[in-house]
Amino acid sequence: MEVIITIGIVLLAVFIFYKSAKKKTTGDCDCGSCTSHCPLYEERKANKSVKK
Amino acid sequence: MEMITAALLGNPNVGKTTLFNYLTGSNQYVGNWAGVTVERKEGFIEDRIKIVDLPGIYAMDTYSNEEKVSKEFLEKGGVDVIVNIVDASSLSRNLYLTLQLKQFNKPIVLVLNMIDVAKTKGMKIDYQKLSKKLGVTVIPISASKGIGIEEVKKLLKSGNFFSLYNENDYQYVEDEKENYKYIEEVLAESMIYEGDKRATIGERIDSIVLNKFLAYPLFVFILYIIFKFTFSWVGQPLSDAMDSVIITKIVSLLDILLQNSSSWFRSLIIDGIVAGVGSVLVFLPIILTLFLGISFLEDSGYMARAAFIMDRIMRKMGLSGKAFIPLIIGFGCSVPGIMSARTLESDKDRKLTALLVPLMSCNARLPVYALFATVFFPGNETFITFSLYLLGIGMAFLIGILFKNTIFRKDEEPFIIELPEYKLPEFKSLIRSTWEKGKGFLKKAGTIIFAMSVIIWFLSNFNFSGMVDMGNSFLAYIGGAMAPIFKPLGFGTWQSSVALLTGLMAKEVVVSTMGVVYGVELQKILLQHFTSIAAYSYLVFILLYTPCISVVAVMRKEFGNRMMIFSVLYQLFLAWVVSFIVYNIGNLVFG
Lengths: 52, 591
Ligand SMILES: Nc1nc2c(ncn2[C@@H]2O[C@H](COP(=O)(O)OP(=O)(O)OP(=O)(O)O)[C@@H](O)[C@H]2O)c(=O)[nH]1
Ligand SMILES: [Mg+2]
Fold this sequence. Notes:
The structure holds two protein chains of two kinds.
Chain A: H1 2-25, H2 39-51
Chain B: E1 4-10, H1 16-24, E2 41-45, E3 49-53, H2 65-76, E4 81-87, H3 91-102, E5 108-113, H4 115-120, E6 123-125, H5 127-134, E7 137-140, H6 149-158, H7 176-190, E8 191-193, H8 199-209, H9 215-233, H10 235-257, H11 263-281, H12 284-300, H13 302-316, H14 324-330, H15 334-340, H16 347-356, H17 366-376, H18 381-405, H19 427-461, E9 462-463, E10 466-467, H20 474-486, H21 494-502, H22 509-518, H23 522-529, H24 532-544, H25 549-559, H26 561-590
Parallel strand pairs in B: 1-3, 1-4, 4-5, 5-7
Antiparallel strand pairs in B: 2-3, 6-8, 9-10
Helix pairs in contact in B: 3-7, 5-7, 9-12, 9-18, 10-11, 10-12, 11-19, 11-22, 12-19, 14-15, 15-25, 17-18, 17-23, 17-24, 18-24, 19-22, 20-21, 21-22, 24-26, 25-26
């Protein structure tokens, strides 16, 4: 049981780490303070609405 | 049915973005200074009308970046109607752009914003007459109070902009004076000025705030009050309460729950996840209060004055006061700070500003300061944190002068900033912008900080032969290899060294790393590993060394590889040198 939970936690952590590292290194940002006043945030939103 | 495109145009700081947010239900950054919006933003009403928010411009005849963006969009963006927003309380300046816009031969809706301000200023405007005289539809609104916005919506939905597009007798002429003369004529007929009751108050405040001798001390004082508010009065007490109540409760609860599980599993949950995430999370109140304070300054109109008085200092670095805005944004996060350097005219300005932005202490570093300040300098938290922020500003100043005289020689450019009216910020918008930041912080705690805590827990409890004592773990090995570099700075332990490395993912991770390697009793244990001078030297290093990888990546995206490498190296070098000086002088003086 413990092992299963641990594996779950680790997989989740590695997944989040991988995703956010990828985001960060491509100049896309997931920093906590850049919310609506960050130009990056907008670009991302704009991209999304284009794809839609 | 075809999509209608409406372009929002107007002078800087007239409330375009505020209206945009209302019309489209988005949540763009609104600030009480000119030049907040630097790129165009799009939004929709019912998927039928596209609204485009453009940067504020005064005219169409100079060639700043903002003007290029706006002009190009008007020419090529398939605009059906121009929504020209003007500040009703200073029509004579605002209408100049309106005259120029008429040259584009598109229907114009003239939105008179800030009628509330106009009213308190004692202006009475005859909207009908104004509309007739200018040959455009006129709608009076107050964007921030939500008055009249339905009108605008209705008109846009009706798609019927041409009804009033007649009697268009006056055309813009090349001669600036002629245009202003015409505007004066129009206003003479459509506006009655009953004398200003409020400007005098604003002017009186300005005479103190912008006073040659008082301006800088006052600026420092105001910042100090905000820090006091954050670290002594509100933020820190809340943080402490959160720490002692919530985190301690969670730990003891988990202790009971996990009584029967194996010790490694308990360690993962408590020493890894709870210590890692919790150690950062307790600083949420501090971050929120600091940003509440900064939002207040922005909205009240003081920030624009700060940029104005900074112009003199900035000029010494070969930058204009305009570069102060990216630097201020950098106090939140360097990424948007660097990006907003785009507003600056010359390439050299942009590069120099981008190099200086990371020296402004971003709020990710705040948890580190707060942790060390409470542990090592109880009672002086405000002063310690404040001194670090000032050190960052001072360093930016010195480095600016250094770079100006070496790699970035350049001519000076004039700086025009408009001083907005003082306003009592609206409670709702303060809360909203503060909450936005809080949300970002929580998200970060739940994602990258959580992930890093788990990873750090593993790296600090394992090596190739399995689970081991922390002193023999991967992490101890890596940290141990780095430690000698930091020995001369006073913090040569593997733990503090490795935290600098993991902190590159996000600066808060410095705290979670310590939470994981030192355990839940972090605060007590820290005291055994640092002297107070070493602790301060560590904070100086945190302030100045290479920013997190998001910043590095943005630097590369905006300016290329060479700038990125340069900024990483110069900051590392700077951090080492300054910490070295601080540590050794500190030891001489206090040791
Ligand atoms: N009193 C009053 N203030 C307003 C009104 N509309 C907007 N404001 C304030 O005016 C300031 C500027 O608003 P923004 O929407 O950022 O202005 P902007 O035109 O987008 O500015 P730039 O992007 O810099 O060109 C903010 O502090 C708003 O809260 C209004 O109707 N009345
Ligand atoms: Mg704007």
